[in-house]
Amino acid sequence: MVIGTTLFIVAVLIIAVWIVIEIKRFRHKIFALFLIGLILFMYFSFTFATDGKDIDFKTVPGLIKAAKLYFSWLGYTFENLKTITVNVIGMDWKANETIGR
Questions:
Q1: Contact 35, 42 (CB under 8 A)
Q2: Is the separation of the CB atoms in 39 and 45 below 8 Å?
Q3: Which mean pLDDT values do the consecutive 10-residue runs of the chain (101 residues) have?
Q4: Would you give the DSSP letter of residue 95?
Q5: Domain boundary assignment for the chain
């Protein structure tokens, strides 16, 4: 009886350690996916913001101009998201009662 209880406790401890290790590995995978998504977002948004502009990426003033343009575009994007969110919150979301009649 004592050996069975001891084996059960050891098995539970082994499973607990295994679960903790898997959770840590899962958190690292989530963080890696977040970083990959952030890098892709920055690349595509930078490409979109600087597309069609006459920017020389080989000079320091050109890089500064590109950075200013990108961060300005990013600021306006967040400003537009804020405006859209405020408009959505202010909408009348009640059901239309005349449809059911």
A1: no
A2: no
A3: 78 88 87 91 88 87 91 92 91 68 54
A4: P
A5: 1-43, 52-92
